[in-house]
Amino acid sequence: MTTQEMNRENTNLDLGFNITWNFPVGSGCAQYLVRLHFCDIVSRALNLLYFNVYLNGYLAYEDLDLSVLTSHVLASPIYVDFVVDLRWVGWD
Questions:
Q1: pLDDT tens, residue by residue, 7-23
Q2: Among 15, 31, 40, 54, which residue's Cβ finds the most Cβ atoms within 10 Å?
Q3: Cα–Cα distance measured from residue 31 to residue 88, given in angstroms and rounded to the nearest whole number
Q4: What are phi and psi of 45, to 5 degrees?
Q5: Of 75, 65, 19, which is closest to residue 42 (Cα–Cα)?
Q6: What range(s) does the Malectin domain occupy (predicted)?
Q7: d(Cα 61, Cα 18) in Å, to the nearest integer?
Q8: Which residues contact 46 (CB under 8 A, 6 or more apart)?
Q9: If pLDDT is split at 50, 70 and 90, which confidence band does 89 have?
Q10: Pick from 88, 86, 82: which is nearest to 24 by CA?
């Protein structure tokens, strides 16, 4: 239900593209597991799609290349886990 796809009609990939999700969290000191699921269903070749992952404005993964994480297989699903401490992201 939360799948997002880049605009395939846009041939200028140098334009910035941003996808954002917001999730409510409780107050106080806590840690949350954030699991991000990816599957590159857009690229026509390997090593063409690089992006950064931010959690509450903090850089969590720089220059993520899904083809490296999936052993160079296109359209292969993968997930990346992050443990987010409320104090770390500034919610506390």
A1: 556 555 555 677 888 87
A2: 40
A3: 9
A4: -150, 165
A5: 75
A6: 30-84
A7: 15
A8: 67, 72, 74
A9: very low
A10: 86
Of 33, 76, 82, 26, residue with least CA distance to 53: 82
Is the sign of the CA dihedral 62, 41, 84, 28 positive or negative?
positive
Q: Which tokens sit at 4?
A: 């997002």
Going by C-alpha positions, the residue among 84, 86, 65 that lies closest to residue 74 is 65
User: Rounded to whole angstroms, what are the CA distances from 17 to 29, 30, 69, 91, 92?
Assistant: 33, 31, 21, 26, 30
Rounded CA-CA distance 31/83 in Å is: 6
